[in-house]
Amino acid sequence: MNKKLKNSLLLFISLVIVNVCTQSFYKRIDLTVDQHFTLSEASKEIISKVNEPLFITVYLDGEFPSEFKRLQLETRQHLEELAAENAHIKIKFESPDQQGDVLIKRGMIPSKLTVQEAGKLSEAIIFPWAEISYQKKSTSVSLLSTTTLSSQEEQLQNAIENLEYRFSNAINLITKTTQKRVAVVTGNGELQDLYLYSFLSEVAKKYRLAKFTLDSVSENPQQTLKDLNSLDLAIIAKPTEKFTAKEKFTLDQFITNGGKTLWMLDNVQADLDSLMANGKMLAYPRDLNLTDLLFTYGVRINTTLIKDLYAAKIPLATGNIGNQPQFQNLEWLYHPLVRGNKNHAITKNISPVRLQFTSPIDTLKNKIKKTPLLVSSLLTQKIGTPNFIELTSIADKILETDYQSGNQLFAVLLEGNFNSAYKNRVKPFQTSLYKEQATNNKMIVIADGDIGKNQILKEQPFDLNKDKWTGQQFGNKDFLLNAVDYLLDDTGIIHLRNKTLKINLLDKQKASKERLFWQFLNVILPLIVLFVFGIVFNFLRYRKYAK
User: Fold this and answer.
1) Which of 110, 138, 324, 383 has its CA 20 to 30 A from that of 241?
2) Backbone φ, ψ for residue 478 (5° rounding)
3) pLDDT tens digits for 39-96?
């Protein structure tokens, strides 16, 4: 065998070995600083449970603004990571142009974008949606947040950062075989279903809802506690009647047995409807008989009201033209607009939350971890109760010097080992389910019963995230849904909302200012260099061969 043939044979064998090795030891390496393309352990755990074909259709194909092509690219890259992790995941990108009406009927509402290119403003319609199908179930995934952000660049940033959370959450929802159970507690004058519809209808898409009344505790407390303990989360939405000792003990033992709780409480009786009807009302403390219970867990809701200079608006009649009253939207300082904790998964990147006649929360020293979720602005004023509130006060001159009470806490997350409020106390009834302490439990306390109350329009529930009169957008529903997800999350998915990526976007102002320079650098300068090179080359060639 000659040397040439031998080398060729060795080369061929080497290529075969390399090919086999690459097929056997396939590995994707993420070289980005922020591990942009690396899936979390929570996502990997969810994807590993997909054991049948799962189809993901993304409606981001076709022509749309250049800046949103980044969203298309990032979505494709993320889904490719999912497909590389599990071969059952199949990806397809489609153009929505020919099926827009069908998508709208399926709840996929398009987004209208304002695009500025070459100094011209134009509008573009895109469908930032994906659809996931698994077995006989399907669900849609919104790729753009409804959060009110200052710019489309921020909206794009938020969308890209939340890609992993949105897809992992949707895949988990569609593939899991069991649903956690949520109790909507009644029996103490809580909000009626119609006023909680906007919030609870979304909760029902992920979890099993069950109406649970505490009335039965008076007749059969042991069975009531047993039934409540079979559920995972209790939502207590604006009770208006005092809790009995047996009812408090039932809730306490639900918590110590591992049950999660979402408290939405008003410690002051004050209502906008009665104020609008009468022009004046008496705001006074409301005794729910829960103070000692919450005190044991480490919080206390005060009986003062907070006025905040950063507030939502209400419509007021300001005059008449002919026989028609004229309305104007004016800021009502008793309805604070509060921002969430930007460093926590529940409240990151949500719109300001509207509260109504809310009271501040004090936190007490104990071993429970307390995380602020909703906090007022610095410009607040405390109003003691009982006190008369008049609608005409909306016209009072505002002096910043009167609003120096600082940040006020309105919602707090509690996590840790909760002691029973009845430890070393006489029990209202005897039960074999009694526990003195809960291990690694969590609850959320909100000092506003109306935070989850939607308005009614033509006897139908109105969107909780929007005011039917002023058109203002809020983050109430997003906050409450994130709160429920956090309390019931045992996979770590919710923490993906904290993911932060460094995305270098084009500075449009700088690009417009330096446009001519970069055009010269990229178009004219290469031509000049080529022209000079041609002249020099011909000159040197002429000198060489002219002799």
Assistant:
1) 383
2) -60, -40
3) 888 889 999 989 999 999 999 877 766 667 888 888 999 999 999 999 999 999 988 8
pLDDT at 158: 81
- Planar angle of CA 165, 168, 339, nearest 5 degrees: 20
Give SS3 for 435: coil
Q: Give the per-residue pLDDT at 506.
A: 53
| Burial of 20: CB neighbours in 10 Å, binned 0-12, 13-18, 19+ | exposed
User: What Å distances lie between residue 13 and 1, 2, 4, CA to CA?
Assistant: 16, 17, 14
Tell me the average pLDDT of the chain: 87
The first and second tokens of residue 48, run together, are 């590993």
Rounded to an integer, what distance in angstroms lies between the CA atom of residue 353 and that of residue 15?
A: 62
Q: How many domains does the chain have?
A: 2
Q: Quick one: pLDDT at residue 32?
A: 57
CATH number of the domain that residue 45 is part of: 3.40.30
End-to-end CA distance of the chain: 53
109 found inside a domain: yes
Q: Let me know whether 117 and 249 are in one domain.
A: no
Same domain, 206 and 90: no
Instruction: Report if residue 204 sits inside a domain.
Output: yes
- Give me the pLDDT at residue 430, please: 94
Helix intervals (H) in 220-271: 221-229, 245-256
Highest mean pLDDT among 25-29, 316-320, 395-399: 395-399
One domain, residues 185 and 155 = no
Dihedral-angle region of residue 68 (phi above 0 means left; psi in -120 to 50 means alpha; beta otherwise): alpha
Binned at pLDDT 50, 70 and 90, residue 108 comes out as: confident
- CA gap 271, 273 in Å, rounded: 6
User: Are residue 167 and residue 200 in the same domain, yes or no?
Assistant: no
- How many Å is the maximal CA-CA distance in the chain? 120
Residue 38 lies in a domain: yes
The answer to whether residues 165 and 189 belong to one domain is no
The one-letter amino acid code at 319 reads G
Residues 411 and 309 in one domain: yes
- Domain span including residue 159: 30-174
Residues 200 and 170 in one domain: no
Q: Which residue has the higher pLDDT, 518 or 104?
A: 104
pLDDT band at 323 (very low <50, low <70, confident <90, very high): confident
Rounded CA separation 171/493 (Å): 11
Q: Is the dihedral of CA 66, 76, 124, 505 positive or negative?
A: negative
Domain shared by 232 and 92, yes or no: no
pLDDT band at 261 (very low <50, low <70, confident <90, very high): very high
